[in-house]
Amino acid sequence: VSRQLKEEIRRGFARLEDPLAGLLAMLESSSDWKGRGHSLGYCITTELQLWIKAHPAVPQSSTKLKKLQARVLGMLSQCPTNLLDPLISIYQLHTADRNYLLEHVSHLYLQGNYKEAAILSIKLKLQPDQDVEKMCTPLLLQDKANLVEEYVAEYPELQRKLLQTLDTWCNPSFNIRDITRPYQGLSKYKPEKFNHRVLSKLVFRLLERFNVDSALCPNVINQRHLRTLKYLFYKRFVEKTMTEENWADHIQSTVGDNRWLQEQLVQLLLRHCDARGAARWAQCCHVPPEMLPQAVAEELQKLHIQDRVEEVTKAGNYEASRKKDYYQLPIPRENIHFLQTWEEMLQCWEKVLQPGQVVGVDMEWKPSFGMVGKPRVALLQLALKDEVFLLDLPQLLEQAEAEGEKEKLPHFIQMLYSDATITKLGYGMSGDLSSLAATCSALKDTEKQMQGVVDLLAVDKQVDGLSPEHSHKERGVRQPEKGLSLLVQHVLGKPLDKTEQLSNWEKRPLREEQILYAASDAYCLLEIYERLCKDPESFGLSSDLTDSLVGKQSKKPRAKKHLNKQEAPSPSGQECQGPRTEPSRPPAPISPQEFSVVCDNMLQGLGRYLRCLGVDVRLLDNEDDHRKAAEIARQEGRVILTSGLPYQTLRSQVGEGRCFSVNCSEKAKEQALQVLKHFNVQVSLGDIFSRCQ
């Protein structure tokens, strides 16, 4: 706004006998201020606000002010957000009768102006006198979760009430239609955004944002724990990629003494084990005998010590046989040092912080399995050519704090990462560093200061011939290698043994298998780097590899997923192809009308997008098992679109090239483009919205 206009506005106020009444009359007779942006009405209003501050002695009788307040309240529901604060300030609405304000907001609510009622309540701080469930329900139905967060942001008691309400809705036996029924005619109603899954995610976001004890939401927590149990059973009994001890650790910490979860555990055991196996695990997980079916309870009474001996012997033979299949540490066991005190740390400090040193760096944390909060690093591994140091981070931080020197460890780590003369090797370093910052706030700027780092995840993408299919020939039913394990296999000849990847890294003492796994994860980085530097051309890399890598990172690498310390996903789309020695030709072009797919339930957004483009799409419901996709695909000749773990199961149930893995981290549009490109689907203008939506 020009200075001349501002001066003219202020002169006009000075000439008015009652500037407040004058502004109101002007706004009532005009409508330009109702639009977005800085209208003339907005400029005049904000100038009056400044003018009043400079001339505080504007006389105003309480009766007259009340009349003005009543008039301005009628206008507020039509106001753009930027006008609310100036008008509330000018007409001192915070001093108005509270019951009168509540009555006005209630009137807005009854008219169906839920958003306006909530915004005005926030501005006038009326929330403590309102029913949080009543105010927030229509907002959630309209997918306005951000406004709901703002509504309770300053009121801990309301946060707790809202979370308890949401948790009640997340009970599997609760019928969500009971909530939605009174709002059938609601404008902008988005039923697909209002289900148990979406509400559960909202609860976890609110728990984290407002730092509320998760015990307040038992339904959501139980359901999340149940999903964790199912995932652990999948890893142990289907994928067979978790050791018995590792699996038992997680099962026990997930179930604990929770009676409902113990019941779910028994059901899962019966589905995956015989009665004897179920009895043994029920005993291991301290399930009360009275909760067990009769057949399992009888087996529990028959258990003898010999069963244990047999299992241990089997496990020992199995572990010995698998060693030859996997990467093995080339250094003796006594050269792996587990450090828990600062006296032990000094030897590590002196050896690691040497100019010219090359250090393999990795970190481990307890898998969060989707629970609240960022993972906290439990173990920091530093590998040198002849030895590996495993730093017990929680213990070292606790000791330093007790001694009043809590900056010691952050200082060491910052020195390491910022020293350009020391080469640091990692894989998905950005993800590790964000977890490190969550563990110790003094390290939050480490990523900005680091120099001399080599993220092998970035190199991974450039290495020739790296695809999951090459990693499991002649290896029976084992899952295809991926991420760092695939890179290790390609460069060093054998993959990493990842059975300890999802360990409980916070439990002490660490098992021997965990110590060897942690040391291998860091040490293999040294061997990969050495091989790639010696012979870059044979891996399809440029000959100036060392020069291009050892400088400061130019690109931020993709973060590791925090759910379970998974490695980077393999390139999407490659999974659809079998092993090949030369590039295959793209399939013949087809129209969307000829392309039929079934979308797994985590890809509903993609399915709707493809349907908009004319593709024949069937969507699995949220409650459907992933395997239903294979049934539909076989019966109706459809291609399966899925992602993550279900892909491994589904692709074996349909013909080659009839199951495609989509990158779940991308938006629906990018996913759709990826699918159309892969199957060479040519979309014309006539295809768009050619199918019923």
Task: Provide the descriptors you would attach to this structure in a database record.
single chain, 693 residues, alpha/beta, Nucleotidyltransferase, domain 5, Rossmann fold, six-stranded mixed β-sheet, four-stranded parallel β-sheet, 31 helices, globular
Descriptive report:
With 693 residues, this protein is an alpha/beta fold. Among the domains are: 86 residues, no CATH class; 192 residues, Ribonuclease H-like superfamily/Ribonuclease H (Nucleotidyltransferase, domain 5, 2-Layer Sandwich), CATH 3.30.420.10; 88 residues, Rossmann fold (3-Layer(aba) Sandwich). It is 51% helix and 6% strand. Helix 8 packs antiparallel against helix 9. The longest helix has 23 residues.
Shape: globular
CATH architecture of one domain: 2-Layer Sandwich
> Can you give the mean pLDDT?
83
Poorly predicted tracts of residues: 308-318, 469-477, 548-583
Largest sheet: 6 strands, mixed
CATH class placement of one domain: Alpha Beta
State the CATH topology of one domain.
Nucleotidyltransferase, domain 5
Going across the major beta sheet, what is the strand order? 1-4-3-2-5-6
Could you say which structural class the secondary elements and strand pairing correspond to?
alpha/beta
Distance between the termini: 47 Å
Strand content: 5-15%
- Can you tell me the CATH superfamily of one domain? Ribonuclease H-like superfamily/Ribonuclease H
Question: Helical residue percent?
Answer: 40-55%
Number of strands: 10
Radius of gyration: 31 Å
Question: What is the count of helical runs?
Answer: 31
Keywords: Exonuclease, Hydrolase, Nuclease
Protein name: MUT7 Exonuclease
InterPro entries: 3'-5'_exonuclease_dom, Exonuclease_MUT-7-like, Mut-7_DEDDy_dom, Mut7-C_RNAse_dom, RNaseH-like_sf, RNaseH_sf
Organism: Vidua macroura
